[in-house]
Design a protein that fits this description.
By secondary structure, this protein is mainly alpha-helical. It folds into two domains: 179 residues, Growth Hormone, Chain: A (Up-down Bundle), CATH 1.20.1250; 230 residues, MFS general substrate transporter like domains (Growth Hormone, Chain: A, Up-down Bundle). Helix content is 67%, strand content 1%. The chain has 18 helices and two strands. α7 packs across α13, α7 crosses α18 and α10 runs parallel beside α12. The radius of gyration is 24 Å and the shape is globular.
Length: 548
C-alpha cells in the first residue's frame, strides 16, 4: 500500500501549473467519494446534447415574416440571412457534435491520460460552454455556419473531452466497483437533458421578443452556466497515487474471471487487437438500435396507437383537443424514456460488477431482440402500456451499454490507458449517431412511399434493429482475453507512468488511504449535482403522467 504526500508532488525543477496533473494527485486523507460529483458536474452539462431538440423549431422562426429557406440547399442556408432556416437543416447540428464527440475523444484520449482530468475537464468546459456562446452569437447574427462552428464543431470537441475526462480517474479510484463508478458519471450524461431542456425552454420564453424566441440569449446564458459548472467539476478532480488500492481490497482473482486482466495494454496496440473491434461492434450495434427508438419514439407512439389512446374509433376525425392529448401522451413517453435512459446507466453498470461485463451485454442483446420483435405485435394488439414498458426497458439498456463499456475495456485492456482506449472506441458512437437516424428515416419513408399504413410503417424498422442487436450479440460472444504479447512490459509501463509526471512513491499506512471524511465540501458538492438531477427526474415523471 503506497500513498503520495501532497507536498511531494511538485514537478522536477519548477512548481507545476494550476492545471497540471501533479497538482491533482490526492493526499492520504482524500475521500474517493468526492470524485463522482465532480464527474457528474461535467456530464450533467454536456448531457444537454440529448435535449438540443428543444431548439430546432424555435430556430426556424427567427426572422418574423420572412419566407422559409426550404427552396435553398443546405450549404446555401449556412450563409442565408434573409429567410428562416428549415428544421432539417438545423438538426444536423446534433449529428455534427456527436460526430465530433467521437473524433475528438479518439484524437486526444492519449493526451488526456498524461494531462490529467483537471486540464482536460477545464478545456472541455471552455469548448462546450464557449461553443454554445459562439453558437448563440451565430443565431443572433442569423448565420447558420457560425452556429454550426460553435455548437457543432467546438461544442463537439467539448463533448468528447468532457465525456472521457472522468472515466479513467473513476476506474482507478473504484477498482472494486468499476461499473458503479462509471455508471455514476455516465448517468449524468443521460440525465443532462432532463435538467437542461426545461431550463432552455423557460429561458427562450423569458428572452423572447414578440414572436421571436430567445434562442440566442438562451444559448449564451447556458454556455456561461455550463462553463462555470464544468470548471468547478474539473477543479474538483483528484487522481489516486500510482498503485493505490481501497482498504482491504486485494484485486480480482484471476481464476474467477479470465476476462479481467492484471496487466495493461498500450493504446497503440489496443486498437489493433480483435478485442477492441469486437467491443466497437458491440457498442455500435447497441447504440444504433437505441438511437433508432429514441429518434422515432414520439411519432411512432402517435402513429401506432393514435386515437386508440383515447378510446376513439380510428375512423373518426379527431378534434384539435384530442390531437393535443395524443401529442401530450407522446411527450410523456419521451420524458419517461429519458428517465430510463439515465437511471439504466447506473443500474446496469452496477449490475455488471456482480455478473460481469460480457454476461451483461448478453442480457442487453437477447432481451433487446425479444423486446424489439415484440413491439410490432404489441402495437397491433393496442397494448399501449406493455408497449411503453418495453420501450423503457430498451432505453435503459441503451444507456446501460454506454455506462458498462468503460469497465469492459478496463477488464480487457487494464486501467493504465483505459481513458484513451475508451476515446477511440467512441468513434462507434459517432458512426451510430449519423447512420442510425439516417437508416431509420430512410426505411420509414420507403414504407410510406410504398403505401403502408402509418400504424404499420415501423414494423420492418424494428425487425431491422433486432437484426443489428444479433450482430452485436455474436461480436460479444467472440470477445476473449488479450494475448500476452500485447501486454505492456514493466519498462513500458514505467515509461508511460513517468509521462504522467508522478514522483516515486513513499510508504504509508493502508489505514490512511481514502478514509477522509466527506465533510461540508463533500455535502455541498453532492447537493449541487444531486438536487438538479432530482428536479429533472421530477419533471420527467410529471411529463410521463400524461401517459396515464
Amino acid at each position: 500500500m503506497t500513498v503520495v504526500p501532497e507536498a511531494v508532488t511538485a514537478s522536477r525543477g519548477k512548481a507545476p501549473g494550476l492545471l497540471a496533473r501533479e497538482r491533482t494527485i490526492a493526499g492520504s486523507r482524500f475521500n474517493r467519494w468526492l470524485v463522482p460529483p465532480a464527474a457528474l458536474a461535467i456530464h450533467l452539462c454536456i448531457g444537454m446534447a440529448y435535449g438540443f431538440s428543444v431548439f430546432w423549431l424555435p430556430m426556424s422562426k427567427l426572422v418574423p415574416g420572412a419566407p422559409s429557406c426550404q427552396s435553398l440547399g443546405f450549404f446555401t442556408q449556412l450563409f442565408a440571412a434573409s429567410c428562416n432556416w428549415t428544421v432539417p437543416a438545423v438538426t444536423h447540428i446534433f449529428e455534427t457534435f456527436i460526430a465530433m464527440l467521437g473524433i475528438s475523444a479518439a484524437i486526444w484520449g492519449g493526451w488526456l491520460e498524461r494531462a490529467g482530468p483537471r486540464k482536460a475537464g477545464f478545456i472541455a468546459a471552455l469548448c462546450w460552454g464557449g461553443g454554445l456562446v459562439i453558437g448563440g452569437i451565430g443565431v443572433s447574427m442569423h448565420q447558420l455556419w457560425l452556429t454550426f462552428l460553435g455548437c457543432g464543431v467546438i461544442g463537439g470537441v467539448g463533448q468528447g473531452l468532457g465525456y472521457i475526462t472522468p472515466v479513467s480517474t473513476l476506474i482507478k479510484w473504484f477498482p472494486d466497483r468499476r461499473g458503479l463508478a462509471t455508471g455514476f458519471a455516465i448517468m449524468g450524461y443521460g440525465g443532462g437533458a432532463m435538467i437542461g431542456a426545461p431550463i432552455a425552454v423557460a429561458l427562450m420564453g423569458r428572452f423572447a421578443q414578440g414572436d421571436v424566441p430567445g434562442v440566442a440569449s438562451t444559448l449564451i446564458t447556458m454556455g456561461i452556466l455550463y462553463f462555470v459548472a464544468m470548471s468547478a467539476g474539473a477543479f474538483g478532480f483528484r487522481v489516486p497515487p500510482n498503485g493505490w488500492k481501497p482498504l482491504g481490497w486485494t484485486g480480482p482473482a484471476t481464476s474467477s474471471n479470465k476476462l479481467i486482466t492484471q496487466h495493461h495494454v498500450h493504446l497503440n496496440r489496443a486498437w489493433k487487437t480483435p478485442q477492441f473491434w469486437l467491443i466497437w461492434i458491440v457498442l455500435c450495434m447497441n447504440v444504433t438500435a437505441g438511437i433508432g427508438v429514441i429518434s422515432m419514439a414520439s411519432p411512432m407512439f402517435q402513429d401506432v396507437f393514435g386515437s386508440r389512446l383515447l378510446g376513439v374509433d380510428t375512423a373518426v376525425t379527431l378534434t384539435t383537443a384530442q390531437k393535443a392529448a395524443i401529442a401530450a401522451a407522446a411527450a410523456g413517453l419521451v420524458g419517461l424514456i429519458s428517465l430510463f435512459n439515465s437511471l439504466g446507466r447506473i443500474f446496469w453498470a452496477s449490475t455488471s460488477d456482480f455478473i460481469g461485463r460480457k454476461p451483461t451485454y448478453v442480457v442487453f442483446f437477447l432481451l433487446g431482440i425479444a423486446l424489439y420483435c415484440s413491439l410490432p405485435t404489441l402495437g397491433h394488439m393496442g397494448l399501449a402500456a406493455m408497449f411503453v414498458t418495453a420501450v423503457c426497458v430498451i432505453l435503459s439498456m441503451y444507456g446501460g451499454g454506454f455506462a458498462t463499456v468503460p469497465a469492459y475495456l478496463a477488464d480487457i485492456f487494464g486501467t493504465q490507458m483505459v481513458g484513451a482506449i475508451h476515446g477511440r472506441l467512441l468513434t462507434a458512437w459517432s458512426v451510430a449517431g449519423v447512420v442510425g437516424p439516417f437508416l431509420i428515416a430512410a426505411v420509414r419513408q420507403a414504407q410510406l412511399d410504398a403505401g403502408v399504413a402509418k400504424s404499420l410503417i415501423y414494423d420492418r424498422t424494428l425487425y431491422i434493429l433486432a437484426g443489428l442487436l444479433f450482430i452485436g450479440f455474436i461480436a460479444n460472444l467472440l470477445v476473449k482475453p488479450v494475448k500476452e504479447a500485447h501486454h505492456m512490459t514493466p519498462e513500458e509501463l514505467a515509461h508511460e507512468r513517468s509521462l504522467q509526471h508522478e514522483v516515486p512513491l513513499v510508504t504509508a499506512s493502508a489505514a490512511d488511504a481514502a478514509r477522509g471524511s466527506l465533510g461540508a465540501i463533500g455535502a455541498v458538492a453532492w447537493a449541487l449535482v444531486g438536487i438538479p438531477f432530482l428536479i429533472g427526474v421530477w419533471i420527467a415523471v410529471s411529463k410521463a403522467a400524461a401517459l396515464f
